[in-house]
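Exercise 7.
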Amino acid sequence: MPGNATGALKTAARRIGVSVEEYASRERNGERWCITHKRWEPRADFSRDRSRGDGLEKQCRLAKAQKNRRLKLKHRYGISIEDEARIWRAQHGRCSICCDHLEPARFDIDHDHLTGKARGLLCKPCNRLLGHAREQIRILEAAIAYLRAHNGK
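Solution. The predicted structure, written as tokens, is:
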């Protein structure tokens, strides 16, 4: 068994271009190589994977979250992370409806529910507003008329 462990250590060290000694030292110091970010990360930043020999996933949680975000954007809205960033810059980091500043990664991508095409970035309350109105202009106009009729009364 020690021979197999040593062989695996050599293979892992060679794969990332470090010496076996450095690899073993970093592992002993509680670090693990993230195959996505290609850097050492604390072992606590990796999720468990019981199917792997060391019990941890090959990529850190942040890398996995970024990958999932990329896949979600492409699948749901047909856009890339770069497209999302372009929309963000075009809107100057503001909600398309209320113009409040959007916090990075804490906004919704508004999209046409028939085509799935992204329309813009909204804060969560504005996105819910459209959803509750079932994206019907008639309902939104009626809400505006109601507010105007009862403003200050």
